[in-house]
Amino acid sequence: VHAYVERKALAHSLNDTKTAVQQLHRLASAIVVVIIIVVSLLVMGVATIKVVFVVTSQLLIVGFMFQNTCKTIFESIIFVFVMHPFDVGDRCVIDGVQMIVEEMNILTTVFLRYDMEKIYYPNSVLLTKPISNFRRSPDMGDTVDFTIDVSTPVEDINALKKAIQLYIDSKPKHWSPKHTLIFKEIENMDKMKLVLCVQHTINHQNYGEKSSRRSELVFELKKIFEALGIKYHLLPQEVHLITNQLNNVMPNANARIPT
């Protein structure tokens, strides 16, 4: 299934690249045709240098009027063919939003958001933005934050480390042996915050598989906590009860209501 998805993404990428090249070819062909016509008129003596100068001046004026359009086209070409930060099917993060590249053109790129909403970005705008590409990233890391009671014995914490090590070693296809259990801080003198840092054997291009592996890890941590009796207990809280005289709050039920 994974190979099929990769081949499908590659086919879409090649198709969109071919489309972009064809669009660039049409643009370049139009420019070349104009140059050939001008040179041909000069060679055949149909147009004098003075006429060509006048026509060129008019073209420069038109170019000045559409300089922003020309600048946008140039920047888009640089982005698509020189920078080329992604291909069709790549999972990217832009402006903090995770999206999949759906379609690439000379001027725009179409993204598909997690809720299947299509988002169109001008390539000249993407040129100025940092882009995170999951597919081109190496094996990526993940973290699980949790809190335990500050009174948890050191022996139980050591047993927790060993149990985590055993689980990760038992899943070599899912997790790299490298992992770290970090003690972040003690808060309010009653709880200790920890974070487990692990490394997948994949990047986050296949986000569903990544999430599934993380869910299994969290569930395994739950079973380890239950087996070792590691819990978190809230500190006793003082509760002050205030008794109000009902007669002072509510009117006398037997009182006559004035008419």
UniProtKB/TrEMBL annotation:
Segments crossing the lipid bilayer? 27-53, 59-82
Q: Which GO terms describe its molecular function?
A: mechanosensitive monoatomic ion channel activity
Q: Does the keyword Transmembrane apply?
A: yes
Q: One GO cellular component from the entry? A: plasma membrane
Q: What keywords tag this UniProt record?
A: Ion channel, Ion transport, Membrane, Transmembrane, Transmembrane helix, Transport
Q: Which family does it belong to?
A: Belongs to the MscS (TC 1.A.23) family.
Q: Which Gene3D superfamilies match?
A: 2.30.30.60
Name by which UniProt lists this protein: Mechanosensitive ion channel MscS domain-containing protein
**Species the sequence originates in:** Gossypium raimondii (Peruvian cotton)
Tell me how this protein sits in the membrane.
Multi-pass membrane protein
- Chief localization class? membrane
**One Pfam family, short name:** MS_channel_2nd
Provide the protein's localization: Membrane
Domain of life the protein comes from: Eukaryota
UniProt keyword Transferase present: no
Any GO BP annotation: monoatomic anion transport
Mechanosensitive ion channel MscS domain location, by residue?
A: 78-136
